Amino acid sequence: MGTLVIVESPAKARTISKFLGRGYTVKASIGHIRDLPKSQFGVDVDNNFEPHYITIRGKGKILNELRESVKKSERVLLATDPDREGEAISWHLIEALKLDPTQPNRIQFHEITEEAVKNALKSPRTINKDLVDAYQARRVLDRIVGYKLSPLLWEKVKAGLSAGRVQSVAVRLITDREEEIRNFVPQEYWTLTAVLLAGGGARFRARFWGRGEEKMDLPDRAAVDRVLADIANALFIVKSVKRSQRRRRPAPPFTTSTLQQEASRKLRFSARKTMNIAQQLYEGLSIGPEGTVGLITYMRTDSTNVAAAAQREAQRFIDERFGSQFRPPTPPVYRSREGAQQAHEAIRPTSVWRDPEQVRPYLTRDQYRLYKLIWERFIASQMADAVFDTLTVDIAAGDYLFRATGSTLQFEGFMKVYMEGTDEEPAGDDEQRLPGDLEAGQVLECVGLEPEQHFTQPPPRYTEATLVKALEEQGIGRPSTYAQIIDTIVKRGYVEIKDRRFYPTELGTIVVELLKQHFPQIIDVEFTALMEAQLDRIEEGQVDWVDVVEEFYGPFQEALQRAQKEMKVVELEDEVTDEVCEKCGRNLVVKQGRYGKFLACPGYPECKFTKPLVEETGVVCPKCGQGHVVQRRTRRGRTFYGCNRYPDCDFTSWQPPARTPCPRCGSLMVEQRRRGEPVSVACINKECGFVAPAETLAVSAAEQR
Q1: How far apart are CA 280 and CA 54, in angstroms?
Q2: Which DSSP helix (H) or strand (E) runs through 151?
Q3: Do residues 393 and 240 make contact, with C-beta atoms less than 8 angstroms apart?
Q4: CA angle 568, 523, 464 (to 5 degrees)
Q5: Which domains can be identified in the chain, with CATH numbers?
């Protein structure tokens, strides 16, 4: 008659069992045991929106095993995750197992370590009904939108479509961005760079700044030519030299959102993959003699807080590994975003002494890479600022002013361990090393003037990292839901991924336009963010969840009734191809399926012939020399390139193949892209290593033709 501890997953159960020992039995519920029915609406609108929960299909056996374990136990403790979802699982377990809800049988911890688990055992509490109510409100709101709006889209647009309260807004962000790009009008502008020589032959570059004290733009070639004419015989004289120091602060430790963004940038992980691997690191892995241990703290958090004990441990580690000069005088404090749950912690290693290289032999490649990212980010966040010596030199050429800027790393600080990634390529103007002996009045030799034409660029299409960032900044959804949102909009065919960027499909654009017209609130970014704020207020006990749902339901139901009468049927015409059905001879059409586009016979259901949609690249397979490289898609919609003789030949590449072979060794070249456009080409032969600008190769190919 010991204590039964119930968690969500077997991995978590194994880790906790190791800490508790005799007298404790740890069982897993394998996630939720109850939910709203899939085949029915499941919400009693006329009875305060009461949800009708049923046992999830396939969970009956698990529930019976838990009931038997409860009978044999003196006490039951529920140790599900410390968030709304975890609280709801515990609440469902109490009802399904007929436990006393007035008893303190809920424990929680933010890391699965022996100390954290044993401390949690000392302070059990009752279920937090506010957390459960916030969960129920979200579940009911999503059910109302999904189960009321989706049938309307089936009737008016296409069978099988789904509409979600949050996913629809995510699709809108992508379609709105596409419209911005489509309507963007490039503006011409020019830069003028002077290549200068100082004493001793030191060469550096200065950018045209303005005239006198006034900043001046160069909108066209005529403006550049006027400046060039005015400075044709001018001396270039150093007007002023400004030396200063700039400090760069480390990035805060990871939250769920920033972890997903950085893993996308640096590791090319999808949000789903990042969360799956983080879950494994959190729940516990066997790391040799130490046994099974949770390597990171809870990975669903929007707080940047760090426990004082963890900061002290990090300070000792930094002193020992790098020296006290790399540790700031006082532990750093980072501001969490507004509305963050301050009781939570940032994502960090459970012990900084578990160096990534130390645990690497026990982890998969992806587990190691994500753990290393989390470990380095946390260590860097507790380190001293990086310090740069900066130099700004203003140079007069007649009435005009040129400016050169540069910086030198004086103390690397946190940069010794980690540098945060960026979504776009950083400008490199400040990184040049300027001569250190420049002085006011010094005459410089101008060895060249380089005018260059530019055009303003449209905003870039979203990547997973920038979409997650936009969702968080605009208060849409919660970080723990971003992976599911992205998966859903791709699988439903509303967006597709090309070169790691999101493009709206015709279907996605049509659905968004219909929702804008008939359900402006549902698709409104600010309204969706307001609903998230209301869910937070429910969690804090400030408002009643039924009132929030009722306030939403009335206007939504009215809009639904109007749309059923006013929304016109949209005919989506399939794209007809030249390929012929092998069974009946009709021309095949392009269809959108769960895993992307495919070819199908338009005679369905009489003829059910289908085949993969293959896009030729015109490049011979470099591995087998017999097949051709074709464009394919993964199940998540990501584009890759492979041999059409698969599985006989397993050649694949994430980068598009270039039609021109490597001029150095003759191997296949692949395009390296930015914002969907090729910027360079590189040889796949690592021993060759040839790289060239994309336009250089294009010119070469044109000359050959």
Answers
A1: 29
A2: helix 129-156
A3: yes
A4: 120
A5: 3-127 (3.40.50.140), 138-183+461-566 (1.10.460.10), 188-249+386-455 (2.70.20.10), 257-381 (1.10.290.10), 655-705 (no CATH)
Which tens digit of pLDDT belongs to each residue from 256-309?
999 999 999 999 999 999 999 999 999 999 998 888 889 999 999 888 999 899
Q: From 76, 92, 74, select the one nearest 84 (Cα to Cα).
A: 92
Report the b/e string of 452-480 with b at 16+ CB within 10 A.
eeeeeeeeebbbbbbbbbbbbeebbbbbb
606-616: burial string, b at 16+ Cβ within 10 Å, e else: ebeeeeebeee
| d(C-alpha 550, C-alpha 45), whole Å | 9
What are the tens digits of pLDDT across the range 632-672?
A: 777 666 778 889 888 889 888 888 888 888 888 888 888 88
Q: Which of 648, 644, 655 is nearest to 621 (CA)?
A: 644
Q: Under 8 Å CB-to-CB from 559, ≥6 apart: which residues?
A: 518, 519, 521, 522
CB 256 within 8 A of CB 279: no
The Cα–Cα gap between 14 and 30 comes to 13
Which residue of the set 298, 368, 400, 553 is catalytic? 298
What span, in angstroms and rounded, lies between the C-alpha atoms of 533 and 674? 36
| DSSP label of 344 | S
Phi, psi angle pair for 699, to nearest 5°: -65, -45
Give yes or no for a cis peptide into 647 (omega within 30° of 0).
yes
User: Tokens 């723990």 correspond to what residue?
Assistant: 480
Q: How far are the Cα atoms of 70, 114, 326 from residue 21, in angstroms, in the given order?
A: 18, 11, 41
The residue count for the chain = 705
Query: Cβ-count burial of 172 within 10 angstroms (0-12 exposed, 13-18 middle, 19+ buried)?
Result: buried
8 Å CB contact between 498 and 676: yes
Which pair of structure tokens corresponds to residue 461? 């299409």
* Helical spans, DSSP H, in 23-103: 60-71, 84-96
Would the pTM count as exceeding 0.70?
Answer: yes
Helices (H), 382-458: none
Residue 200 exposure: Cα atoms within 13 Å on the Cβ side = 7
**Is 298 a known active-site residue?**
yes
Q: Residue 214: pLDDT band by 50, 70, 90 thresholds?
A: very high
How far is Cα 513 from Cα 504, in angstroms, rounded to an integer?
Answer: 12
Pair 570, 159: CB distance under 8 Å: no
Number of other residues whose CB lies within 10 A of the CB of residue 21? 7
Q: Identify the residue whose tokens are 């939108």.
A: 145
Specify the DSSP element, H or E, that contains 430.
none
Angle between helix axes 167-183 and 482-491 (nearest 10 degrees) is 70
Residue 425's alpha-carbon distances to 169, 265, 390, 521, in angstroms, are 28, 12, 21, 36
Q: SS3 sequence, 487-552?
A: HHHHHCCCEEEECCEEEECHHHHHHHHHHHHHCCCCCCHHHHHHHHHHHHHHHCCCCCHHHHHHHH
Q: How far is CA 454 from CA 205, 228, 675, in A?
A: 18, 18, 17
CA-CA-CA-CA torsion sign (84, 85, 86, 89): positive
